[in-house]
Amino acid sequence: MDGGLLDHIIAAVERAPLQSEPFSHSYVERVFPEDVYQEILGALPASRHFEPLYHKDALLPDGQTTRSTLTLDAAHMARLPAQQRDVLERVEAVLGSEPLRNALLSRYSGVLCKRFGEEWRSVALEGTVKLQRDTPGYRIGVHPDTADKVVLLQLYLARDDAHRSMGTSVYRRTGPDAFERVDTLAFGRNTGFSFARTSESWHGVEPIDAERYSLTLNYRLRNQRLWRGLRKRVVRQARRFARRLAH
Q1: Nearest CA to 127 among 147, 154, 97?
Q2: pLDDT of 40-58, one tens digit each?
Q3: Which domains does the chain have, with CATH numbers?
Q4: On the CB side of 204, how many CA atoms lie within 13 Å of its CA?
């Protein structure tokens, strides 16, 4: 593992101000050393390596999806050209490491203690690192994330600062079905954000007008893995059937 890169990312995570409104979150800047950031941008795989996700909010009127993902595990990365694979394996090793996990969880120890009690450190979690590709028209409505999620780190891979409005927004609930946007976590170069999932971690993305890449690190409850996999398969099959009917 690249210890220097790991130390750099942990320092970026820990120096980011922790915001309490509308829920506990941080906006992270200068996440990667500049040379590493340029390497990552140069190693973004071709679209054919990504798996389309047919989430209802990501669908266009013609049934095409605006979101696709590439899980950074051995099986998926083995299909990539060697240069891309080498860069992304290095990134995955650092993002999936125990020291970064501990740094992120410690940032949200108060939220985790409230959710899981004093023994929150012993809660079994699994972390997954993914590369996400969003295309024009992508959006996702206001939501708190699924109950199996615990902590999320999303790192933007913007080539420049021309599309800062395409970041994730955070919201405050103002009524049963009403929300007020509090802030947009700008889609800037070498930035990102993290938060701990609660019933009030309302966030979403307004429709974007350009291609958007990001790295995501999700920590989920390990004991819900089987249910999560079954639910995804059922939803995937239902959406495939609906698309066939539409055509």
Answers
A1: 97
A2: 999 999 999 999 998 888 8
A3: 3-222 (2.60.120.620)
A4: 18
